[in-house]
């Protein structure tokens, strides 16, 4: 694959590289946009080394950033710390990031990861802003586990010049007043906080209305919120009903059906 990319042009291309350490995941989040491609494969450190060497020897590719995750939960790969070490050895100085759901962040696992001295940023994914909305997406009990993981990470990484900690939050429409106090406390300690609108209607299970008729990103966002967050005020009426019903405070705008 890399050979054909290189053959595409003789110009030097800046590349943001996304690599899958695994296709396995310990959760099945409702909104996950990679869930349908999850499987049972772990990346082998030697394969990673070979791929990175191909890239570094290419005269037309300049890797700017490496993202060591896409599908699945990176810490499901028992060799994840080795993958970090390979990345550091083959591409020293290149900015590295990865995301984790935080549920597997035991102190032992973290010490393993932090022992690889390499500048990187770790994002812990926390959705919505409180236990209810996070667990609706990620499964019961996951908010508490992710909070524990984030706290452990922040404690262990404190003062460590090699590691930055971020929170990556899918915005589920929760107002700040509804945020969990522990989450707010931990947010004060992170180096980065990214909050995003859910990108695509997630898992197969969802009985979402057909999104093709939606006219704006805002409408899509509202639709996602309706499915995931019962506190969100708008409720779409059943397909046979007269349109959208709204048991909402006056500030809410309901999409028309
Ligand atoms: C696919 S996950 C893989 C890493 C890890 N399992 C996790 O949950 O952080 C990578 C990132 O994508 C985000 N993500 C998943 N589904 C999304 C969606 N529909 N919209 C926006 N971000 C999403 C997750 O919150 C996570 O931060
Ligand atoms: S968002 Fe992350 S934790 Fe959730 S199912 Fe997708 S890969 Fe797994």
UniProtKB/TrEMBL annotation:
Annotated keywords: Iron, Iron-sulfur, Metal-binding, S-adenosyl-L-methionine
Cofactor(s) recorded in Swiss-Prot or TrEMBL: [4Fe-4S] cluster
InterPro entries given in the database record: Aldolase_TIM, Radical_SAM_PqqE_MftC-like, rSAM, rSAM_sf
Record-linked Pfam families: Radical_SAM (PF04055)
Residue stretches of biased makeup (Polar residues): 242-257
Alphabetized GO MF terms: catalytic activity; iron-sulfur cluster binding; metal ion binding
Protein name: Radical SAM protein
Domain Radical SAM core: 11-231
Entries under Gene3D superfamilies matching the protein: Aldolase class I
Originating species: Salinarimonas soli
Segments of this protein annotated with the region Disordered: 229-257
């Amino acid at each position: 694959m890399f050979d054909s990319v290189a053959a595409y042009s003789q110009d030097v291309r800046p590349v943001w590289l996304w690599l899958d350490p695994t296709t396995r995941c310990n959760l099945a989040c409702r909104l996950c946009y990679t869930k349908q491609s999850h499987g049972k494969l772990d990346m082998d450190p030697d394969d990673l080394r070979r791929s990175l060497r191909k890239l570094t020897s290419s005269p037309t590719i300049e890797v700017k950033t490496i993202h060591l995750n896409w599908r699945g939960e990176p810490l499901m790969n028992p060799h994840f710390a080795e993958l970090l070490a390979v990345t550091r050895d083959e591409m020293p100085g290149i900015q590295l990031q990865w995301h984790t759901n935080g549920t597997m962040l035991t102190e032992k696992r973290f010490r393993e990861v932090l022992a690889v001295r390499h500048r990187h940023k770790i994002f812990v994914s926390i959705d919505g802003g409180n236990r209810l909305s996070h667990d609706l997406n990620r499964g019961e009990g996951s908010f508490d586990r992710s909070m524990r993981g984030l706290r452990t990470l922040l404690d262990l990484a404190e003062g460590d010049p090699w590691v930055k900690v971020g929170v990556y939050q899918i915005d589920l429409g929760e107002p700040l007043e509804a945020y969990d106090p522990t989450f707010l406390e931990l947010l004060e300690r992170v180096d980065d906080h990214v909050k995003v609108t859910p990108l695509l209607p997630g898992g197969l299970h969802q009985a979402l209305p057909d999104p093709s008729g939606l006219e704006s990103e805002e409408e899509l966002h509202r639709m996602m919120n309706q499915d995931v967050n019962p506190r969100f005020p708008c409720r779409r009426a059943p397909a046979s009903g007269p349109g959208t019903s709204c048991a909402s405070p006056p500030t809410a705008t309901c999409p028309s059906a």
